Amino acid sequence: MDQYVLNHVHIMTTDPINRFQKDMYLVIRNGLIQEIGHTPLPDALKKDLPVINQKGKLLLPGLYNTHAHTPMSLLRGVSDDVPLKTWLGKEIWPREGLLDKRKVQAGTSLALAEMIKSGTVAFLDMYHLHMNEVFKLTMDAGMKAVLSRGMIGLGTKKEQHSKLNEACELAKYWNENGKGRVKGMLFPHAPYTCPPDFLEAVISQAHHHQLPLGTHLAETLEEVNDHKHQYGKSPLHHLHELGFFNKKAILTHVVHVTDEELDLLKDGMITVSHNPMSNAKLGSGTAPIPKMLEKGISVSLGTDSTASNNNLDMFQEMRTAALLQKGVNRNPDIVSTDQILEMGTLQGARSLGFAKHGLLQAGSPADFIMLDMSSLHLQPEDNLISHLIYSASGQDVTDVYVDGKQLMKDKELLTLDEEKIMYEANECFKDLESRFLNKRRKEDN
Amino acid sequence: MDQYVLNHVHIMTTDPINRFQKDMYLVIRNGLIQEIGHTPLPDALKKDLPVINQKGKLLLPGLYNTHAHTPMSLLRGVSDDVPLKTWLGKEIWPREGLLDKRKVQAGTSLALAEMIKSGTVAFLDMYHLHMNEVFKLTMDAGMKAVLSRGMIGLGTKKEQHSKLNEACELAKYWNENGKGRVKGMLFPHAPYTCPPDFLEAVISQAHHHQLPLGTHLAETLEEVNDHKHQYGKSPLHHLHELGFFNKKAILTHVVHVTDEELDLLKDGMITVSHNPMSNAKLGSGTAPIPKMLEKGISVSLGTDSTASNNNLDMFQEMRTAALLQKGVNRNPDIVSTDQILEMGTLQGARSLGFAKHGLLQAGSPADFIMLDMSSLHLQPEDNLISHLIYSASGQDVTDVYVDGKQLMKDKELLTLDEEKIMYEANECFKDLESRFLNKRRKEDN
């Protein structure tokens, strides 16, 4: 069904002036919102198109998760209460060394299903293994994404070259075959895992192939101090010198940066993915979001992987972003409820380079979600943006549409087999843990 | 049904050594857990008692919310992005002035229903109006609570006396008629709303009638500084001098306190209700929980009202408590996942004076909840405590029991009429808002 009308929905837009409109209809044609109007529905439309009544549901733009590592959903809950360095070195990397194609597929499928269930329509993903499987699964699931074959550049020149080559080839392949829905980018892991000459090569390839760049930056203070010790400059300054900020790029985390460093990012091409829950859980700190907003830097939200979050619910991410900034800065007005909604939707779309997305207006892609607002925790039925940001969760989402295609209907996934995905994730996890414990036992002896 | 067996449940206890036990049975008799054992169920029990199979659900102690103002659930979402003083003075108190008995009942019913739905079995409640309605509704709903007729002591001596008298009479009445399930306490609002001589009178009455005490303390820095300016000492020191800490008392918020002040609380009779989401949302700050734990002070968790939270989901409160402390202190180990679970259960029970509660063991009251752990965001099925604290929400709760009586079955409330409660809350809210806007319009003219 590529032409239809959704009737009797309440809509919430990202425009504070027309925030909430009651009892509306939306005409969807060829994946786009063709028209939005107040009911009653004109007779001509009634005759022409199938009409779907959605009485009472709240429709809003889908959510954009700008920092994920979907295959890592297999590692949810394996390690808590330790800092990033221990977490990566002792718990995550050793398990990742044991992931094969089937396990990457299982983790990715689990993540895609969880994202759709909780209202996410698009995501940024970076992973080191079998990344083309993530591409195929995302295409089949019907979501939007910007993907990258992640690169840790600590190996030999030959290994670096091979990774970069593969990353470029895959990104180009995805741009050609992703139907504009799934695109490619280059994402060197971080300045602390990618030496400067390798970063230079990556930047040069990104600019040559017109691929956006991304990297993890200034996640912990230790990482920034180590970098200064080794190179005599901060990782952000270093990236700036290397030309990383000369074209479109997204920086994830960005917790430990100075005011003066932020000035280097404010030309509009560089966006920040704020990851409050992951940064808090790993004890990394709280990013200076109000300063970024003051400087006009576009800030979106990302969950990071479920191994450090531990879910992919963007409603939780929006709420925590708001609460953390208000609490830490002891100022309840330092980030407004309006700004938080925009970070989860419109700014996410912008930072992933999806033009006209994150908006509910004629000519925009029909990417939106619907929520059942009739639950106890969303009463009284008023001040809905407050309920959305401070009380709702992904479990309130009932329907998800991308390019006009319905991916979830009344909480049932239409493009993915939920039961099969859970079974497969558990089988793969059991196998992974037994291999991991065996390996650890051998190393301990 | 006062005698039965729950069979085939997985249980999670507050004891880290026996955290998780698979495929168990529980024998419930006369409101107590009589026996917990590994399946198979002995034949004698099978013959004697009705057996309810709960294959695969996770059973854990119910959650304790140690800071609520249930009637205020009617005010969910009325004001965001402003500090405590403005929030109270401009938005909350003017609306509260318009609450009548019916509106208090409506707000309370909404809160009770939301609490049961999200796995809370007991709560502490303080409110200024129609508090006996809260008592009656709580008794009917089947929950446990410690209640108080709140007291703001800014009026005349006569008003003070009348409030204190009513508070004592109600507390005694609840202790006599609450069947040990609902009890009374005295809760002067805060040192900034209760002058010292009034506080002295309250303390004296509390000790005379053997009622526990509670108050809001050191929620904002402004409040602490104002108090020092007016009295030459901090509110905590002032309470100490007045004898507030001589017998059992609970302090809520406790954000702005020094190390030396905390030493005054460590004798075991004083407990702290930590309210991380409300403190963050109002920009009040982050309480020094690790220091309290270090000193052996019992810390439990409370949501505060939905007007500053904005829901009553204790899973969200546990998660935010963990994330905030780890993030703000830049130390992922500063509060452990184990400690957070204990704060939401066992420490809550202790601080409300419910002995033997918050435990899953023979002889404890049959107060527990069950969760469906088969959702996508709780996979893979392992490390369940991590999933509970970092990924679950109140919406994963399916069943709630208090004193062996089932209050919710498969997400359906058994003691409350959910639809009627939502209807009534909305009717009352509409009436309240129209009166409030009228009043504001008149004042503006």
TrEMBL record, chains A, B:
<dbReference type="InterPro" id="IPR050287">
    <property type="entry name" value="MTA/SAH_deaminase"/>
</dbReference>
<dbReference type="InterPro" id="IPR006680">
    <property type="entry name" value="Amidohydro-rel"/>
</dbReference>
<comment type="function">
    <text>Catalyzes the deamination of 5-methylthioadenosine and S-adenosyl-L-homocysteine into 5-methylthioinosine and S-inosyl-L-homocysteine, respectively. Is also able to deaminate adenosine.</text>
</comment>
<feature type="domain" description="Amidohydrolase-related">
    <location>
        <begin position="59"/>
        <end position="406"/>
    </location>
</feature>
<keyword id="KW-0479">Metal-binding</keyword>
<feature type="binding site">
    <location>
        <position position="67"/>
    </location>
    <ligand>
        <name>Zn(2+)</name>
    </ligand>
</feature>
<protein>
    <recommendedName>
        <fullName>5-methylthioadenosine/S-adenosylhomocysteine deaminase</fullName>
        <ecNumber>3.5.4.28</ecNumber>
        <ecNumber>3.5.4.31</ecNumber>
    </recommendedName>
</protein>
<dbReference type="InterPro" id="IPR032466">
    <property type="entry name" value="Metal_Hydrolase"/>
</dbReference>
<dbReference type="Pfam" id="PF01979">
    <property type="entry name" value="Amidohydro_1"/>
</dbReference>
<feature type="binding site">
    <location>
        <position position="216"/>
    </location>
    <ligand>
        <name>Zn(2+)</name>
    </ligand>
</feature>
<feature type="binding site">
    <location>
        <position position="304"/>
    </location>
    <ligand>
        <name>Zn(2+)</name>
    </ligand>
</feature>
<feature type="binding site">
    <location>
        <position position="96"/>
    </location>
    <ligand>
        <name>substrate</name>
    </ligand>
</feature>
<dbReference type="GO" id="GO:0090614">
    <property type="term" value="F:5'-methylthioadenosine deaminase activity"/>
</dbReference>
<feature type="binding site">
    <location>
        <position position="69"/>
    </location>
    <ligand>
        <name>Zn(2+)</name>
    </ligand>
</feature>
<dbReference type="GO" id="GO:0046872">
    <property type="term" value="F:metal ion binding"/>
</dbReference>
<keyword id="KW-0862">Zinc</keyword>
<dbReference type="InterPro" id="IPR023512">
    <property type="entry name" value="Deaminase_MtaD/DadD"/>
</dbReference>
<feature type="binding site">
    <location>
        <position position="304"/>
    </location>
    <ligand>
        <name>substrate</name>
    </ligand>
</feature>
<feature type="binding site">
    <location>
        <position position="149"/>
    </location>
    <ligand>
        <name>substrate</name>
    </ligand>
</feature>
<dbReference type="InterPro" id="IPR011059">
    <property type="entry name" value="Metal-dep_hydrolase_composite"/>
</dbReference>
<keyword id="KW-0378">Hydrolase</keyword>
<dbReference type="GO" id="GO:0050270">
    <property type="term" value="F:S-adenosylhomocysteine deaminase activity"/>
</dbReference>
<feature type="binding site">
    <location>
        <position position="219"/>
    </location>
    <ligand>
        <name>substrate</name>
    </ligand>
</feature>
<comment type="similarity">
    <text>Belongs to the metallo-dependent hydrolases superfamily. MTA/SAH deaminase family.</text>
</comment>
<feature type="binding site">
    <location>
        <position position="189"/>
    </location>
    <ligand>
        <name>substrate</name>
    </ligand>
</feature>
